[in-house]
Amino acid sequence: MIGPLATGVIVLSLVIVVAAIVTAARNRAMGTVLLVALGVLEAALLVQAGFVIAGMVGGEGPDETATLIGYLAGTLVIPPAAAFLGLAERSRWGAIVIAVGGFAVCVMVGRLLQVWQGTA
After folding, report:
1. For the packed helices 65-88 and 92-117, what is the interaxial angle rounded to 10 degrees?
2. Which of 25, 36, 41, 49 lies 20 to 30 Å from 105 when distance is taken between CA atoms?
3. Distances (CA, A) of 7 to 2, 23, 30, 52, 108
4. pLDDT (0 to 100) of residue 13
5. DSSP states along 5-55
6. Chain CA centroid to CA 41, Å
7. What is the rounded radius of gyration, in angstroms, for the C-alpha atoms of the chain?
8. Number of C-beta neighbours around residue 82 at 10 A
């Protein structure tokens, strides 16, 4: 796992959280900007998953493989689910769903980084 990539994913997810909260505060539905941001976040998470899988195949990684795979799979599922639910709810609550999803990804990537480094 690459630390700077994980940091970039965390920053991107926090930017999505702030943008979604601003959208909800303005009483608007989720727009194209949030949808594209979730797509970029998902692409970054897929790149990160590729590096994690390659590292595990190469013999790197933590002793807690099941925990690592669980967090990795969870982070990959959240952005598409948040996008689907955000598009389905055409009120300000759709943007709130995006904010919650972005914050969940932020926390899970941080935890994934801790598990990878063996500090948790």
Report:
1. 170
2. 25
3. 9, 24, 25, 15, 12
4. 97
5. HHHHHHHHHHHHHHHHHHHHHTT----HHHHHHHHHHHHHHHHHHHHHHHH
6. 6
7. 15
8. 26
Measured CA to CA, the distance from residue 42 to residue 100 in angstroms comes to 15
**pLDDT number for residue 79:** 96
pLDDT digit string, tens, across residues 9-46:
999 999 999 999 999 999 998 889 999 999 999 999 99
Token pair recorded at residue 32: 């194209």
| The model scores a pTM over 0.85 | yes
Residue 120 confidence (pLDDT) above 80? no
Distance CA 70, CA 6 (A): 16
**Residue 22 domain boundaries:** 3-117
- What pLDDT, in 10s, does the model give residues 54-87? 999 988 878 888 999 999 999 999 999 999 999 9
Q: How many domains does the chain have?
A: 1
How many helices (H) and strands (E) the chain has is answered by 4, 0
